[in-house]
Design brief:
single chain, about 190 residues, alpha/beta, Rossmann fold, 2 domains, 5 strands, globular, HAD-like_sf
Length: about 190
């Protein structure tokens, strides 16, 4: 039985992938770039500064402009995993944690809108670690704070990076692949 359940945010708990995709596309277009949806997903989703750098941008400056725009659109984002499911896990004495490559500032508007802040004992955002998934840093940090054991911890995520991060941390993994994510990821590749 799993006592500690760690979740990814974008594309897992929250249906945010369209927001990110639209904003990446809008930022790239004036600079003469028109990558396909799959290229944006591959080059930018969960890659930190590597995506903007690949297109000749300074990653820090790129995200300094992009993040405030995304933050404003995240408030009422739809949840892929209903709050009732998360509440049910708590009622069954599970610890919940969130490990996301997104900045805390893009997560919190939706957290507050959906009143999720009391469900998660720990939130480790991408701007609070030095390495992104598939590196296990976020998972290890969350487990340390929660005093969780590897044998009773699982991560639920929607990408290969989430699954590999779990494996790299020595915990069980679960791929969450809602229908809405099929245009962003290839199930066979995952």
């Amino acid at each position: 039985m799993y006592k500690t359940i760690l979740f990814d945010w974008d594309g897992c708990i929250a249906d945010t992938l369209d927001i990110w995709l639209k904003n990446y596309r809008e930022f790239l277009k004036p600079h003469g770039f028109a990558p396909s949806d799959r290229e944006i997903v591959h080059d930018f989703f969960g890659t930190g500064d590597a995506g903007p750098n690949k297109y000749g941008f300074d990653g820090k400056k790129f995200y300094k402009k992009l993040i405030p725009i995304v933050e404003a659109q995240m408030k009422d984002v739809k949840l892929n995993i209903p709050k009732s499911v998360l509440s049910g896990l708590l009622e069954n004495e599970r610890q919940l944690g969130l490990v996301s490559t997104s900045n805390r500032s893009t997560i919190m508007p939706a957290f507050e809108f959906h009143n999720l802040q009391n469900l998660f004992e720990v939130v480790i955002a991408g701007n609070e670690v030095s390495k992104f998934k598939p590196d296990p840093e976020q998972i290890n940090k969350a487990m340390e704070i929660l005093k969780a054991e590897q044998s009773s911890t699982i991560i639920i995520g929607d990408t290969d990076k989430d699954i590999l991060a779990g494996k790299n941390a020595g915990i069980k993994t679960c791929l969450f692949f809602p229908e809405v994510n099929q245009r962003f990821h290839d199930e066979q590749e995952l």
